[in-house]
Amino acid sequence: MRPYLLIALILALPLAASAQSLGNLTSGESSFTVSVNPQYPLPGGVASLSFLSSTLDLTNATLSVSVGGSNIYQGSVRPVAVTLGKAGSTTKVVTTIASGGINYRQTLSIQPQDVVLIAEPISSVPVLYPGKSAVPLEGDVRVVAVANLRSADGKALSPSTLSYSWTVDGMQIANSSGIGKTAIIVASPLQYRVRDVSVAIMSQDGRLVGGDALSLSATDPLLRIYENDPLLGIRFDHALSGNYTIAGSEATLFAAPFSLPTTNGAPFLQWFLDGAAAQTGNSITLRPSGKGQGDASLSLTASTGSYTTATANLSLFFGAKPSSNFFGL
User: Fold this and answer.
1) Measured in whole angstroms, how far is the alpha carbon of residue 101 from the centre of its chain?
2) Highest mean pLDDT among 25-34, 127-136, 218-227, 307-316
3) Domain of 168?
4) Are the C-beta atoms of 219 and 310 separated by less than 8 Å?
5) What is the Cα–Cα distance from 89 to 93, expressed in whole angstroms?
6) How far apart are CA 90 and CA 111, in angstroms?
7) 106 plus 11 within the same structural domain
8) Single residue among 50, 81, 110 that ends a domain in this structure
9) Within a domain: 324
10) Which of the listed residues 199, 217, 235 is the one where a domain comes to its end?
11) 3 state SS of 119
12) CA atoms within 13 A on the CB side of 267
């Protein structure tokens, strides 16, 4: 195989990934390679250029890098940072390595694109919960690609016309890839493991390319119990734990499961009073009977399937005489 064919193969992947193009070399043949990191540079970000060669002694060579006709680096061969412009804008970089009295030059164009992956765990959270649900054990996660690919003149391409190539843990998922396939559903990783998801997005003519990647890690499920006050509603600002005193004639408690998988429906909630099954569902109303003070144990389990479960426990006290003072003293 001739040398220029070998160089073409080496540079084929970075060319496709970062929308780079190589110009003519002053020596007539390429004697070094340029890699761009990250693979998919972001608009307004920084791309790091690294240099490798199997034929040149880079230790004793000098490097010159110019961007848009202005020299930004002159010195020994080392990684050089290049500041990029807005989405779709082209940054032309000329790199020259001088070795043994000969200049070897490569020209590349870096065109950053704006692509972001968003993880949407399919898991339980309370209604109107202000936070984000977590990746559930033994569940699924929907990963959505938000792409803003633009041409050099700033024209945005419709996401539905772009080609999406999804990869999970290094394996390309063919049935989830294709034109307009902006999302993929992946299984949650095993406990204490991570799952890597990435996407490469390309315009139909192959000229514009972008991508992003993220890592998913599962969270243990949680179960919280809150007081449902008749005037204030559910007291989400204070989760009950340990001991709970029923001050009036009755008390209503609300259970909120966090991070349980909901792929096959909402979690099943079961309340137990002194070890005996009492009620199912998110809420339970407790009404002490008889006279005098007493105590009981309240427990709750939330489950989805045979494996993913969460539990919560309370020690109940009731029958205490209420304070006669308006201020609770």
Assistant:
1) 49
2) 218-227
3) 114-217
4) no
5) 13
6) 5
7) yes
8) 110
9) no
10) 217
11) strand
12) 30
Tell me the two tokens of residue 290: 């008889």
Q: What is the phi/psi pair of residue 26, to 5°?
A: -65, -30
- Residue 166 is part of a domain; what is its CATH number? 2.60.40.10
> In the sheet that 242-246 helps form, which strands lie side by side, from edge to edge?
242-246, 308-318, 294-304, 268-273, 276-280
Contact 279, 285 (CB under 8 A): no
Tens of pLDDT, residues 24-33: 345 434 789 9
Structure tokens that stand for 165 in this block: 């190539």
Extract the tokens encoding 24: 């003519």
Q: Note whether residue 34 is domain-resident.
A: yes
For strand 222-229 and strand 251-258, is the pairing parallel, antiparallel, or unpaired?
antiparallel
Report percent pLDDT > 70 for the chain.
Answer: 88
**How wide is the angle at C-alpha 219 spanned by C-alphas 218 and 222, nearest 5°?**
150
* Token couple for 131: 């936070």
As given in the structure block, the two tokens for residue 108 are: 């590349």
Q: How many domains in the chain?
A: 3
* Tokens, residue 127: 């209604």
For 83-93, what is each residue's pLDDT tens digit?
A: 999 999 999 99
pLDDT the model gives residue 319: 77
DSSP calls for 9-25: HHHHHHHHHHT------
Amino acid at 143: V
* pTM of the full structure: 0.80
> What are the structure tokens assigned to 197, written together?
């998801």
Of 18-22, 207-211, 248-252, 309-313, minimum mean pLDDT range: 18-22
How many other β-carbons are positioned within 10 Å of the β-carbon of residue 8?
13
3-class secondary-structure state, position 219: strand
Residue 251: pLDDT band (50, 70, 90) is very high
Q: Is 236 exposed, middle or buried (0-12, 13-18, 19+ CB in 10 A)?
A: middle
